[in-house]
Amino acid sequence: MQETTANRERVDVLIAGGSIAGVAAAAALAQLGLRVLIVEPSPDQGRRLAGELVHPPGIDGLRELGLLAEHDGLGQKVQGFAVFSQGGEAGPQPMVLPYGEVDGKRPVGLAIEHTTLKERLLERVKTFNAVDVWQGARVTAMNSVEGGSYVATVDTGSAESELRVHARLILGADGPMSQMRKMIGIQYETQRYSGMMGTEVSDAHLPYHGYGNIFLNQVGVSYAYAIGGGRVRVMFEILKGADQKGSIAAHLAAFPDEFRREVQEAMMASKPLAAANYCIIPETTVKGNVALIGDARGCCHPLTASGITAAVKDAFVLRDALRKHNLDVTAALREYAQVCDQLQLTRRTLAEELREAFLAETPQAKLLKQCIFSYWKTSPQGRAESMNLLSTLNSSIIALAVQYAMVALQAFRLLPQWIKSNALMDWVRGVIGLLFKSLSFQYVAITQRVK
Ligand SMILES: Cc1cc2nc3c(=O)[nH]c(=O)nc-3n(C[C@H](O)[C@H](O)[C@H](O)COP(=O)(O)OP(=O)(O)OC[C@H]3O[C@@H](n4cnc5c(N)ncnc54)[C@H](O)[C@@H]3O)c2cc1C
């Protein structure tokens, strides 16, 4: 495209994507006095199965940015997780994991229907003086210019549609399947774990009120949590290559009778929503004047329900790095990448380990699962530390390595049980595996600290 003054736009920051990461970043960077333009393709937000449960650090962050207010009355309060395990590790009642106390207070999260949350955030950021939102527009190309920077081409969605947007900083906040990543040639590893199906029911028979209900099952994980307005979101995981009908039947069998009946009726009444669960690891978070943020920067299995909270944290890290380096984009992005990569490593490792423990059937995974539940049952401190890591309140890989070692030590408490069931050799194999994993975490933690 030939660039002229008529088709050129200049802003401080261009953000591709007006969902959680894009809006949080816009609000955070507006605080630095920067002029921000958000480009969001969806003219209106269709219903979508994606993040809804937001941990306390995410909710606090959205409030601090002026994007949510306590009196909004959106969603439903969440006090932590209630974990039901088909293997019986939790016992007849779920394992209840409240958020750990901070300064003597127990923080609360919120679960808000995804589209409602996304719409609310976008509407709120439109009221910010320093932020412009072009809805129905998208970034269609990224051209490299002198000095390794990029200029974006934006399809505005109107008649004379294309504009060249020059920005000191460009953010790719365009989700897990980011086109921005591709346009600037950032390679990434991707792994599709499973699909997800979701429906809504009334909150009358939610098995454990006030908490995110998680059901661990050999066919995958299912979730149920209140999203406000008397409604509950229910989601089932369908593992790659698994029989869908059989998986749904197995998930439903884990629910109490009345709740199961309601879910079955809802699934017959309307087509469930669907989504896919990926692990995506880009080779880098920044390139030139472009930074990836939110799911575009990398995502993992939604087991820990931390994608939204992590996206909000990214926005703060970026704001603080720009402030510290007096708006020097190169220096700030270097710091942003380093901090975010460490946060993401902890989040991804935790999700991977929990997924492995809850779904794999090796002696090591079985032992790890029993160790986790034994740790939670016997240590209130352990429950609080686990929730601090799950909710990203603590994102230190060292803390994760320490917690992993504490969990692994539970293997000795469980030894008599394994001997009784004639599985001593499996226990030995499991312990060797856990020990090896624990040492490799310590190594990663130490090398991260040295960096
Ligand atoms: C089934 C499922 C359940 C989940 N549950 C939870 C949960 O309970 N809690 C939690 O915290 N997280 C959860 N997550 C993760 C959470 O949904 C994501 O982490 C979060 O939505 C990421 O937000 P984002 O803004 O980075 O990306 P997205 O929400 O994916 O938004 C990307 C935006 O970019 C726009 N876009 C695309 N292309 C372009 C372009 N070329 N130019 C401009 N804009 C573009 C899109 O229209 C979209 O609005 C879940 C995910 C899944 C799949």
UniProtKB/TrEMBL annotation:
Cofactors demanded by this protein: FAD
Domain Squalene epoxidase: 166-412
GO MF term set: flavin adenine dinucleotide binding; squalene monooxygenase activity
Subcellular location: Membrane
One Gene Ontology biological process: sterol biosynthetic process
Keywords of the record: FAD, Flavoprotein, Membrane, Oxidoreductase, Transmembrane, Transmembrane helix
Enzyme nomenclature, EC number: 1.14.14.17
EC top class named in words: oxidoreductase
TM region(s), chain numbering: 13-38
Predominant place of localization: membrane
GO cellular component: membrane
Pfam families: SE
InterPro entries, per the entry: FAD/NAD-bd_sf (IPR036188), Squalene_epoxidase (IPR013698), Squalene_monox (IPR040125)
Family label: Belongs to the squalene monooxygenase family.
PANTHER family recorded: SQUALENE MONOOXYGENASE
Protein name, per record: squalene monooxygenase
Organism annotation: Candidatus Methylospira mobilis
